[in-house]
Amino acid sequence: MRERLRASLPAYLFSLPALLFVGLFVTYPLVASFWLSLTDYHLLYSDDTKFIGITNYAKAFGDRSFRIAFRNTLIFSLFRVPVVIIVSMFLASLIQSAGKFGRVCQTLLFVPVLVPEAMGAVIYVWLLSERFGLLNHLIGTALGITFAKNWLGEPGWAMAGVVLTSYWGMGVSIVLYSAGLAGIPKSLYDAAAVDGADAWDRFWAVTFPSLRHTTAVVGILAIINSLKVFALPFVMTRGGPARSTLMLYHWTFSNAFQYFKLGYASAMAYLLGVIVIIIAGIQLAASRRESSS
Questions:
Q1: Is-cis flag, bond preceding 10, omega within 30?
Q2: Would you say 241 and 153 are in contact if contact means Cβ atoms under 8 Å apart?
Q3: Measuring CA to CA, which residue among 240, 207, 261 is closest to residue 36?
Q4: Are 265 and 256 in contact (CB under 8 A)?
Q5: Three-state DSSP class for residue 56
Q6: Helices 171-182 and 64-97, interaxial angle, to 10°?
Q7: pTM attached to this predicted model
Q8: If DSSP codes are grouped into helix, strand and coil, which group holds residue 39?
């Protein structure tokens, strides 16, 4: 026993820095924030903090702004997640069939991922600007008139602008699908071709089933990124107009760092985390059920 412990001692010593890092910057903040969610902790009035149980969680469900933010986040996710999956799979298929030129296109499509999300939002704010935006200029030039529309100043168009901007960073999904396509044996396509299957039939009989696990990963990542979207609506619209683009992360951020209600903000953060875990769990369960059938 002592010899085994002595032999494994170097491994424990080498892993100690990582364990300390996880403990200090992951485990402790999780425990501390959960405790805060059960109190009425206010950053400016911390001397009067008291334990209130699940009151903050109940307050969130009765908060009209929280319900609006939750609805907007779901709308954003419904318009983003399916498009990311379908378009990424389609583009990856084109890249796979284009040879060396496809690799160049894949690199170019991945470049926007390297651009910070906030910077991408600033670029789209300029493109959609009412007075000097490129979109209004192109429409005005095509129609031969002076066209000035405040795209980010109307509720429906503002949400559409945020959703369209979010497609900017789907390069990761394209790379994942490209890797999944590269792992499909060519013999499966040859066998399907011998059976007389055309390109569409080969896609549904070979490509789509083979990408089932990749689609599950891409779907989970897209859902998580959609539910925790923050930088795009914050930079582009500040949650407006009329709270039409207010998202859950934005409302949590506002309560924590604008209103200093850290207890209430922690409760909302944990509610969002539970939502993400539930949806990701459903996605994983559905994927496993399909793979076992």
A1: no
A2: yes
A3: 261
A4: yes
A5: helix
A6: 40
A7: 0.87
A8: strand
Judged by average pLDDT, the poorest of 19-33, 59-73, 140-154 is 140-154
Cβ count near 100 (within 10 Å): 7
DSSP state at residue 259:
S
Residue type, 86: I
DSSP annotation of 38 reads: T
User: Count of residues for the chain?
Assistant: 293
Using only C-alpha atoms, the chain has a radius of gyration, in whole angstroms, of 24
Q: What is the model's pLDDT at position 292?
A: 61
243/73 Cα distance (integer angstroms): 12
Torsion (CA) 67, 73, 75, 76 in degrees, nearest 10: 160
* 99 phi-psi bin (left φ>0, alpha ψ -120 to 50, beta other): left
**Alpha-carbon distances, residue 14 vs 8, 11, 17, 18, 21 (angstroms):** 10, 5, 7, 8, 13
Work out the number of other CB atoms within 10 angstroms of the CB of residue 197. Answer: 16
Determine the Cα–Cα distance for residues 266 and 43; give it in Å rounded to an integer. Answer: 12
Q: Could you tell me the pLDDT band of residue 291, with boundaries at 50, 70 and 90?
A: low
H-state helical runs in the chain: 2-22, 28-37, 55-62, 64-97, 100-114, 117-127, 134-143, 155-166, 171-182, 186-194, 199-202, 208-210, 212-227, 231-236, 248-257, 262-292
Q: Residue 6 burial by CB count (10 A; 0-12/13-18/19+): exposed, middle or buried?
A: exposed
Q: Measuring CA to CA, how many Å separate 120 from each of 3, 5, 162, 164, 227?
A: 57, 52, 11, 11, 19
Q: Are 249 and 272 in contact (CB under 8 A)?
A: yes
Q: Kindly state the tokens that stand for 275.
A: 């939502």
pLDDT of residue 87: 92
In order of start, what are the domains of the chain with their CATH numbers?
Answer: 49-292 (1.10.3720.10)
The residue with tokens 């926007």 is 112
